[in-house]
């Protein structure tokens, strides 16, 4: 079959869910994105020219439309911007699903997706808050823009470092034959409530970067409460990130003892000695 041809096969929704859904995901994605994205994936999956990279570029173009709406600053522009921002996010989620479904993902595609996501959100911040400043001549919107961009940056930096530390600890235990649960799901809620959320694929870290962006760039513009929603979202993001930091601190404190116990249970004949390396602290 020639490149770019249509396979004429539309996969079943059940197959899409089984092969492309993450085991756990943000509640906004599970409830408000996946039901639409899965059906759109079913429509476009046979068209191999619609690669993940093409979908990433389409999401960016739709995001540019959101920027134009935000820049207008009036009620109609804000509503259009919010709707297009959500649609851009839906298409952005489709690229990963298509990559998993058709096996067309690439390392470069992962880089492109990450970079264009950051570019889209950054310029949406500039146009949303800049548009409000141009309309109301209130410098507070410029300060709010700075805070929104800063929090989004901090969230990405902190999330990356938390994952890096957890992966490092998991790899050391795994090398001794003691596999641990994946650190891909940040947990902020435990007990019965947490178990119920996880059964429904909703991660217990209820206000992650996804919810933060959706509240700032969708809920705020739709309600007209840009200032109030952005402040609430920033506070909620910091609260849940602080919970992650506390749990990471607890895990790193317990890790040397866990690693020592794992080493003690492995006989010298079974494995080579593995040096104990406690996580670096500052």
TrEMBL record:
<keyword id="KW-1133">Transmembrane helix</keyword>
<feature type="transmembrane region" description="Helical">
    <location>
        <begin position="202"/>
        <end position="219"/>
    </location>
</feature>
<dbReference type="Pfam" id="PF01066">
    <property type="entry name" value="CDP-OH_P_transf"/>
</dbReference>
<dbReference type="InterPro" id="IPR043130">
    <property type="entry name" value="CDP-OH_PTrfase_TM_dom"/>
</dbReference>
<keyword id="KW-0808">Transferase</keyword>
<comment type="similarity">
    <text>Belongs to the CDP-alcohol phosphatidyltransferase class-I family.</text>
</comment>
<protein>
    <submittedName>
        <fullName>CDP-alcohol phosphatidyltransferase</fullName>
    </submittedName>
</protein>
<dbReference type="InterPro" id="IPR000462">
    <property type="entry name" value="CDP-OH_P_trans"/>
</dbReference>
<keyword id="KW-0812">Transmembrane</keyword>
<dbReference type="GO" id="GO:0008654">
    <property type="term" value="P:phospholipid biosynthetic process"/>
</dbReference>
<keyword id="KW-0472">Membrane</keyword>
<feature type="transmembrane region" description="Helical">
    <location>
        <begin position="140"/>
        <end position="157"/>
    </location>
</feature>
<dbReference type="GO" id="GO:0016020">
    <property type="term" value="C:membrane"/>
</dbReference>
<dbReference type="GO" id="GO:0016780">
    <property type="term" value="F:phosphotransferase activity, for other substituted phosphate groups"/>
</dbReference>
<dbReference type="InterPro" id="IPR048254">
    <property type="entry name" value="CDP_ALCOHOL_P_TRANSF_CS"/>
</dbReference>
<feature type="transmembrane region" description="Helical">
    <location>
        <begin position="225"/>
        <end position="246"/>
    </location>
</feature>
<feature type="transmembrane region" description="Helical">
    <location>
        <begin position="49"/>
        <end position="71"/>
    </location>
</feature>
